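Methods: example folding runs. The two proteins below were folded one after another, and each record is reproduced exactly as written to the output file, sequence line first and structure-token line second.
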Amino acid sequence: MKLATFNVNGVNGRLPVLLRWLEEAKPEVVCLQELKAPQEKFPAAALEKAGYGAIWQGQKSWNGVALLARGVAPQETRRGLPGDPEDEQSRYIEGVVAGVLVGCLYLPNGNPAPGPKFDYKLRWFDRLKNYAADLLAHDIPVVLAGDFNVMPTDLDVYKPERWRDDALFRPEVRDAYAELVAQGWTDCLRALHPDERIYTFWDYFRNAFGRDAGLRIDHLLVGPALQDQVRAADVDRHVRGWEKASDHAPVWIQLAEPGDGPE
């Protein structure tokens, strides 16, 4: 199973890019973030024509998450993280595809920091950690994938010294990510490429993509039940160079098919 995450930065405005990538990469499961579309404006028909069933949680103007599956509709299990019934931001959706529970998330940016937006980010991270621990307690095949808006280490940012006070790189956020992973999750891209500078996001400004001035903020975490099934992990960085592309590139992992033996 090829499972990917892609912050599309506007699903309707970037639909040609998304459809082109789906046809090229042919992932079985895709987590999308930053739909920037209300529920009724999600391009379900176009995606169905491309061969993908979908569940989604839209939001006007910003946020929004979706889960796609090739040839089937994901079986929805949750939308929204528990822990704050007053939180109306569309940032989490979850479903089952081919026996794997997939949580698609769009963690808050948090800037400017410090401030209310940063406080919200930390609260959301705490809710994620609590819920993620519950998922692991069930000992099921599970993946958490999406835009985490955090660079875990200095290796994940092109000039660490310039980002020390940013909400994506402050110690509180990196500590929260480390605590999440320490529950028993595997950061697939880093696990398979432990010493490489690999980025998933390049700003539109100052020729960031051309200079490879990037950040690694999109992550795929697998639980222990899938840890030994990860065969590959990479970034389709060339997609960032397409016309009218998102500022993120798709990130993917390849899981062994049921019945496959050890690598």
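Second run, written to the same file directly after the first:
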Amino acid sequence: MPQSSRYSDTRVEKLLAEMASVLEKDKAPTDLSLMVLGNMVTNLLNNSVSPAQRSTLARSFADALQASVRDDKAH
């Protein structure tokens, strides 16, 4: 079941395109891109979420990420 969001698809897609553009401009390989994005998530959690909620939000994020990864052989 898809999650509803308080943010418009247009806003999400615009930010995604801008972030992807930065990584592409740098010619960042997949592992570096994942490292940078992971560090960004960690920084957001540590600096914008109360200590009491960090673990729960991190788990929720990890579960959502896992659920969104396709199990096909394409790449």
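Comment on the second run: The chain is about 70% helix and 0% strand.
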